[in-house]
Design brief:
By secondary structure, this protein is of the alpha+beta class. The chain folds into 2 domains: about 1-50; about 55-300, no CATH class. It is about 35% helix and about 25% strand. The protein has helices spanning about 1-20, 20-50, 80-90, 160-165, 210-215, 245-265, 270-280; strands at about 60-70, 75, 95-110, 115-120, 135, 155, 175-180, 180-190, 205, 235-240, 290-295. Strands 1, 2, 3, 4, 5, 6, 7, 8, 9, 10 and 11 form an 11-stranded mixed beta sheet that branches. It is globular.
Length: about 300
């Protein structure tokens, strides 16, 4: 068997030597194919399987999806309006922490120095999901992240701090134009901290309320109470001992109550009366089925 294999190899080598063009094409094709597969695996591994750096308790951290059924078809959305995020946070008991987040490509700087860069738009509670104390200064607080306007404060990404400010400590307290808002720099994230965006490390992190106030459509002056503006997502972290099934059931009940609040936002008494009549599932009569779910094994 070994002799036959050696003869086959020799025959193959002689054939390739007689056709150098074919040989080059085969080698290049194999090289490109292997390289593409390695690159794709690395990308999928980072995006779907490997948790972001510094994430605390990744097995119990989930992205929230709002599920609905229309005409027999199931739909899932990771978009969560700000007031619904507040509802789901306040009307559930299965989670040790919740946060809302988004991302934006914004011009940072002014004039010819302005560059469009990736910015993390996050609630103040976002940083508690990570074991990543700031390298310099501090993160913004819940008091600085209250609607309607929030505080114009920003935390720089470590890489941006190095390239833009040379790692100088006196960057703290200075101002920086980020999109339409002039922010005061209050902190610098640690080296390697990228939030939920390992492939696009944010240059800065800003409060979700200040960004919302600066970018809300003119027709939504009270954007923090508007259930029709879906522009962010939500992550949660289950309490120890709470199963995924129990967390989903808790979220589902809160989502239904939130739907009732949105439906009767101008008639709160009607919502209370509906809840009393229909028990634990108010406002579900005559509307499509709906529930909420945590992402299985990943926050992506």
């Amino acid at each position: 068997m070994i002799d036959a294999l050696v003869q086959d190899i020799r025959y193959g080598m002689r054939s390739l030597a007689q056709s150098p063009g074919l040989t080059l094409g085969v080698v290049l094709t194999l090289g490109l194919g292997i390289g593409a597969n390695v690159t794709m695996f690395s990308l999928v591994d980072r995006m779907l399987f490997r948790p972001p750096p510094f994430l605390h308790a990744p097995d119990s951290t989930h992205r929230v999806y709002l599920m609905s059924t229309y005409g027999g078809t199931e739909y899932a959305s990771s978009g969560v309006q700000y007031p619904r995020y507040v509802d789901l946070t306040g009307w559930t008991s299965s989670f040790s922490r919740t946060a809302e987040f988004s991302e934006a490509e914004l011009a940072i700087g002014t004039g010819t120095d302005a560059r469009e860069m990736h910015v993390g738009v996050v609630s103040a509670s976002f940083f508690a999901f990570f074991d990543a104390p700031p390298t310099l200064g501090r993160y913004f607080t819940a008091d600085e992240d209250r609607p309607h306007s929030g505080a114009a404060v920003a935390v720089l990404g470590y890489g941006f701090w190095q390239t833009r400010y040379g790692g100088r400590r006196d960057a703290l307290g200075t101002t920086l134009q980020i999109g339409p808002t002039l922010y005061t720099i209050i902190g610098v994230a640690p080296r390697g901290f990228v939030g939920l965006w390992p492939d696009q490390p944010p240059a800065a992190f800003v409060p979700i309320t200040s960004h919302g106030s600066a970018t809300a459509p003119s027709t939504m002056r009270s954007w923090w109470t508007t259930y029709s503006w879906m522009w962010a997502s939500m992550i949660v972290q289950r309490k120890p001992g709470v199963s995924v099934a129990a967390a989903d059931a808790d979220l589902t009940q809160a989502r239904r109550s939130s739907h009732c609040a949105a439906r009767y936002s101008k008639r709160p008494r009607r919502c209370q009366e509906s809840s009393a009549r229909r028990g634990s599932s108010p406002c579900l009569s005559g509307i499509p089925g709906m529930w909420a779910s945590t992402s299985p094994g990943s926050i992506r």
